[in-house]
């Protein structure tokens, strides 16, 4: 059986302002929901990782089997990757014992390896080319590693233990917001590869979401708002559903397609 998807159908979301708003909310949800399962329920990082890995595998299978872009399926998989990324990063940082810098180094290596393998196989890592089962597999693998790296970066910047820089949640959020603004400026005012800028922004929005998630549920003494992880997660889920309903959801542009995707080469 051919692994080709209909060349006139893209199943990845168009990259718009709405895309980034939902993506940041999804990454914040990944932090609160991941911590709720592993910490609040006491299941631990390994069990939490197994649970969210199963959810992600099911979601990716549904996404790959789909014949067209389905916003609910797509964003469910994004949430699954960001939640799995939270537990994977925490497992690497804490359970393995490599600390935040070690976790960042490991995950950065995995992300570069995924991108390099994708490029070696397809000659590009542009999301415009996600039109086959193979490229979709590369796409979701790269997204998973970028989400996990983003979590580790956020923890490294904000944390005071395990080799963290100790900047705190508010300062870290400002740092990542500034970095995202620089990437946005480069998009509008430079000729830097749109593919490079897309993946840079995708990685940077994850630690922003991670620090926002920590800010919501961490104790007041640690600089957080001390909200229940469960309540914060429910609120974020509702917010994401409202955003999916409010913002136009359409498939991205790809070779041979007609929709618009700004993350182009």
Q: Can you summarize this structure?
A:
The chain has 265 residues and is mainly alpha-helical. It is built from 8 helices and no strands.
Secondary-structure-derived class = mainly alpha
The total of beta strands comes to 0
Instruction: Give the termini separation.
Output: 30 Å
Number of domains: 1
Helix-residue proportion: 55-70%
- Mean pLDDT over the residues: 82
Strand content: under 5%
| Cα radius of gyration in angstroms | 18 Å
The helix count comes to 8
| Most strands sheet | none
- Based on Cα principal axes, name the global outline: globular
Helix-strand sequence? HHHHHHHH
What are the segments in which pLDDT stays under 50 over at least 5 consecutive residues? Answer: 1-6, 254-265
What layout of secondary structure does this protein have?
Layout lengths: L16 H24 L3 H22 L5 H25 L3 H24 L10 H26 L10 H21 L4 H24 L11 H18 L19
Helix pairs in contact: 1-2, 1-3, 1-7, 1-8, 2-3, 3-4, 3-5, 4-5, 5-7, 6-7
